[in-house]
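Can't attach files on this board, so I'm pasting raw text. These are the components:
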Amino acid sequence: MPRLTRRDFFRASTLAAAGAAVPRAGLAGQAQPDAASLPRVRRYKPFGKTGWQIGDISAGSGQRDPAVLDALFARGINLIDTGQQYAGHEELIGKVLPKWRKKVFVLGKWDPPLITPTVTKSALLESLDVSLKKLNTTYIDCMMLHSIGHPRYGGMERIQNPAIYEAWDEAKRLKKVRFTGASSHGVRMIEEIGWGIDNGRFDIVLLGANFLTHGLAPLLKKARAKGVATVAMKTMTIYKSDLDIRALQNEQTNARQAVLKWILASDLFDTLVVSMPNYDRANEYLAVSGTTSLSARDEGYLETVRAAISTEYCRPGCSGCFGSCPSGVPISDVLRYRMYFEHYGEQKFAMQRYDLVPAANRADACEGCTAPCERKCPYGLKIRKRLVEAHRQLSMV
Amino acid sequence: MSVLVLAACGGGDKPHQSSPPAQAPPAKSEALGESSRQLLAWLPDPGAVPGWTRTGEPRRYGPGNLWEYIDGAAETFLTFGFQEAATADYADAARKLEVTIDIYRMGDPTGAYGMYAEERNPSATFLPVGSEGYRSGNVLNFWAGPCYVKLTAPREDPGLTAGLEALAAEVARRIGGAGPRPAVFDRFPAAGLVAHSFRVLPKDVLAQSYLSNGFEGEYRDGGKPWKLLLVVFDADDAASGALDRYQAFLASSGPAPRRITAPGQGGFVGKDGYYGLVVAARAGRHLAIAVGAPSERQATAQLSALLKQ
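---
Top answer:
Structure tokens for the assembled complex are below.
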């Protein structure tokens, strides 16, 4: 990867800002781009064994207004990710879907708590019918298990319940579902998704990933070999809650685009889903469709983000330190609060979050601890020292 | 591009360990702040509702880990000002019924009403619980004060209704302070208003990033439903700038909007590719927009009433 000096980086950043091809919703008095010049999907890829060609950028569940969803489909997006748990999103899609039904692939998901070791086939089919009604359609292209691999909802015994597969088979027979799959960004993502792929249960998998999460390549390679389609989600997790990285100053748009470009250029996934709640975000994200490689400028943005958060960033899907703390300190959460405090200028927000941790589980317990967590961390984070410092920062000790 | 193997991500074939999720330990009230203690106290004590016992300890979630409980829905709760949640499971052993109670404390009553309205099922059976509630199948939801409360049973059961309503009434009694819906909705004209259609739109009104703090009602005058929206700004200039920007947005994808001098301080009539007719007008720091109305006359009349308040 070409290395940029700080001067090179900011010069490149300035040029990028000057020439950014991202039409913005216009300011008063400014000329507006006409509809034909707005960014749209520029690249389509085979989608596993489904027979579909899906755009490299797909829609997540962030819309609240049907008009923007209609506009996204008009701009070439042909896959939308939804689920029973996303309040009102199925109904929103239902307002637009009839117009686009044959052109848009719908990823639906059962509500995670519904999937238990004892859930029945009839309960799953009834729940599917509720979704079909809300979506205003007679079929869902892919009905998924939502958020598997997460301890909150249970373990492997959930997804090994035969009723799930009986329900899927019945739904396919009734032409209510065409394909099946699962989503995950939990600590046991790799083994539970891997189990479904190995056993031929999943046609499509939806996985949490961004440029800081590594380790998915063997799983994705296995998926490709078996014709399982792959979708990336949580691609913009590092920008959650609109917390901006100060070092990027006015380059947030370009940095966000670089984060998406990394997924596109890696070619690890068939498509990615990203939340586009408004026209500005849609323009911003669709502008990078078609990306097949990263520029030096993109690498510079990623390097800046990486430098700001990499050694503190607990990757989605990593369970390295899980259960290792004798005091029950929520390690990844406290480190994330520290990141908010130090790098995002969100001191109050971070302290409020830390205040929610029960006193018995706070990081003052790390003083004098032998830090078994550090022996478990695959990224070599100096967890104990960072937690002790975090406690002082976040509790104003 | 190289990709590293993260061995620790997986646990191989090891059996699942049912460790509690990070940062969601059982709540111990003695270690909590005042607001958290109050939130937990709003959950019925074991045996407070005859026939129902609490099974297990209450759980508590904050903005940093709400996704661990409701995953993809967390983002919407955060948008409405979510502060903290307490949840607990209850059972009626004799009738073999189970119910989970979730209390979401939002930043203020408007946030609580907004989140409630976001998930509200207009065709449900509405109930006088809290400020407003409804029951639909195995679910009973209501809002009261700064709280949005959800009671959910794993499945429908003929004996469930009474239990849901008794538990809900007990939670509502404990929260108290069930006031009216946000006063801003009193501005919306009553004629043609679709029942239970009000929504709070904290941001991205009409998917425009510069339109925040909005309120919406749905209208029907015999034909297709259409929307009336009110966006409240901090200052007149901000409202005026947003009006111009929205006009420019419509001009980019359709015919140039036509300026109008009333109602209020004027605005424009334009066309949106999805909604059809758009009429917008401003009065001071209030921007009112009608989308999809059957005629300019009807839209203007309702906007005039909305801005006159």
